[in-house]
Amino acid sequence: MSNRYFEQRDVRRDGLRSACAAMEDALAHIPEPAFGEASPANDLRARWAELLVLIAMEPARLLRACPVCKQAGMLEATRCMNCWTKLAVGTASDVLPA
Ligand SMILES: [Zn+2]
């Protein structure tokens, strides 16, 4: 119940999500400047916000197993990309655990 294509893509995306979460955590621990005080930290927060827009991080892809060959594929797929079985509409109960 796996698919090399999705595994490789998710490893990279998971790494990026983890790095972004670590950056958000680090930024959250930088003390806020006094009101009206110039702060390099605020500049960093603004640049980070701009970068997040450019990255356009999407949520983790929902996967399900093909009922015939058991290969993982996208939840919204209408046909298995491994065995070409036509698939019914996926539901929340079909989602594979992350
Ligand atoms: Zn299949």
Give an overview in words.
The chain is mainly alpha-helical and 98 residues long. Helix content is 42%, strand content 6%. The chain is built from two helices and two strands. The chain has helices spanning 4-28, 40-55; strands spanning 63-65, 72-74. It has a two-stranded antiparallel ribbon with strand order 1-2. Strand 1 (63-65) and strand 2 form a beta hairpin. The mean pLDDT is 86. The protein binds zinc ion. Zinc ion binds at residues 66, 68-69, 71, 80, 82-83, 85.
Helix content: 40-55%
Oligomer: single chain
User: Which small molecules are bound?
Assistant: zinc ion
Compute the average pLDDT. 86
Listing every helix as H and every strand as E from the N terminus to the C terminus, the arrangement reads HHEE
What percent of residues are in strands?
A: 5-15%
Largest sheet strand order: 1-2
Cα separation of the termini: 13 Å
Radius of gyration over all CA atoms, rounded: 20 Å
Low-confidence stretches: none
- What is the count of helical runs? 2
Shape descriptor reads rod-shaped
Number of strands: 2
* Backbone structural class: mainly alpha
The largest sheet, given as strand count, sense and whether it forms a barrel, is: 2 strands, antiparallel
